[in-house]
Each structure stands twice: as structure tokens, then as C-alpha cells.
Amino acid sequence: xxxxxxxxxxxxxxxxxxxxxxxxxxxxxxxxxxxxxxxxxxxxxxxxxxxxxxxxxxxxxxxxxxxxxxxxxxxxxxxxxxxxxxxxxxxxxxxxxxxxxxxxxxxxxxxxxxxxxxxxxxxxxxxxxxxxxxxxxxxxxxxxxxxxxxxxxxxxxxxxxxxxxxxxxxxxxxxxxxxxxxxxxxxxxxxxxxxxxxxxxxxxxxxxxxxxxxxxxxxxxxxxxxxxxxxxxxxxxxxxxxxxxxxxxxxxxxxxxxxxxxxxxxxxxxxxxxxxxxxxxxxxxxxxxxxxxxxxxxxxxxxxxxxxxxxxxxxxxxxxxxxxxxxxxxxxxx
Length: 334
Known about the structure:
The strands form three sheets. A five-stranded antiparallel beta sheet has the order 2-1-5-4-3, with helices on both faces. A five-stranded mixed beta sheet has the order 7-9-10-12-11, covered by helices on one side. A three-stranded antiparallel beta sheet has the order 6-8-13. By secondary structure, the chain is an alpha+beta fold. Helix 5 (about 120-160) runs antiparallel to helix 6 (about 165-185). The relative contact order is 0.07. It has helices at about 5-10, 35-40, 50-55, 60-70, 120-160, 165-185, 195-210, 225-245, 295-305, and strands spanning about 20-25, 30, 75-80, 90-100, 110-115, 190-195, 215-220, 225, 255-265, 270-275, 310-315, 315-325, 330. It has nine helices and 13 strands.
């Protein structure tokens, strides 16, 4: 068997690439099993039939002629194709290439057509792009609605002096929810959240609003967390950090708020928010019903993630600990 024939046999054995060998007039000489299967015909059915008798296309025929006459290969990616004999397949997408095979006289004697089905890849990419666009639109609407709620609460506080403080606090909480949601929406992975980056960005924003010279916030949370759990955890951290910045460092006192999240056994996570401030500023002790809106939110968020809340506050500062079950898709480093 000539080497070229052996090489063609090896090429045509590929189950993933559709191949057809055509003569100068673009009549089928041979197709491989993958090509025949994609067309719903046995391989021998194609032999002797004209490619453009079966698949008429003046534009494609011009390309075939240029390849034959110039002796130069041609390739095109993600070419859309409609199947006239199989309309139920809809539009499919293919990577095409044409390779001229010269004869003894140097002229193109045959053309090798190779086709790779990339339909699923194209559809998956387009579906992902559409989904991302929808999520961005949804996030934009949620953000706008939260801003409207916060603005209404602020306006009401001006009109009702007796309720000004609770309304201002409520507006601040809504603003925090909006900021957390905005940061989560910016994460390129829609399923999991890099908590180290998420909490660092969150604390930077909180420090810009509530911090001052001499105060710092440090984060150690090497974890990937599902977005459903990342949202309440982020809100918890926001409430606890704000609480520390407001109450633990009076009279210009300097200090640090530390946010740490880790897992000891891969089954339970511990979130710690601790400061080295004055201590003794927590208005509800362990097991008591908190009175302020902020502390009630903290207790509710801890319950939402199935966490147990513990507080230590003394002359060395205040530490909040929330121990909760690690989500199945959570990845925490110790």
C-alpha cells in the first residue's frame, strides 16, 4: 500500500473529525465513518456524488475552486450550517478546512475536506454570555431598588424627627446590603466567591466610610464559598466591623479590627471578628435577646447560616465568634 494511502487510512480512522476526499470536480471519492454518521448516510452512499449537488452553495463552491486552482489551504471557524434533510437539527456550527493534494504534474488532483462539529461549544458560550447579561441586568435592578429604599428612609428621617435615628440606621443597613450585593455581582465566577478578596474589598469600603487615621482592618479568610452563603457571611462581617469601628475606639483611640475565617476539620467553619479596643461595649450578652437593630441583624444572619454566636468583651477588646457548618462546595484553608 503506498504511503499516502496508509496516511489517509490513519486520518480517516478519526472518530472526532469528519473527513471527505474529493476529486477535481468535487465528487466524493471517500468519506470516513464520522462524516457519514453526521449526515445520516452509509459511507458508500457518497461515492461518485457531487458535493455541491448534495449541498448547493455558490459561495462555498467559489472557495473550493480557489483552493483547487491556487493550491493553497483554507480554513474557517464556527461556520453556521442548516441541514436541508434534517431540519430538526437547527443551526449547527463547524470548523472547516480544505487541503489541496497535488498529482504527479503538480496540479491539484484531490481536495481533502475536514469538518469538526463545534455546535455544543458555540451554544454553551452563547448561553453563558446570555446568562451573564441577564444576571448583570438583575443585579443592576436590585442595586437601584436598594438605593431607592435607602433614599426613602433618609427622606422619612428628615420628615419625622422622633424616628430620625432608627430610620437613619435602617437606611445605613440597606446601603450595606447594596454594597455587599454589588461586590458579589462583580465576581467573575457566579457560583463561588473568593472570600479573601470579597471581605478585603468590603472592609476597605467600610474603613473609607467609618474609619479614621489610626484604625486598620486585617482579613484572613482563604476560602471559596457558594454565593448563597457568601451573602449572609459578608453582611455579618459588615455589621460586626461597623459595630467595632463605632464603639470600640472612642476618643481617637488607635487599634485593629481582625476578620478571620477558617475550618479546623473541613466540616465546620469559624468566623471571628475581633478588635483590640476598649471592650465592654456589647449591649447584649450571650444568650440574651439583643435590643439594637444592628445586633438583631447580627443574630438573624448567624441563624440564617445555622451558626452559633458567642461574644467575649473585656479590657482587651471584643471578639465575636460564629461557628457554622461548612457548605458542601465550600473550600476553606486552615
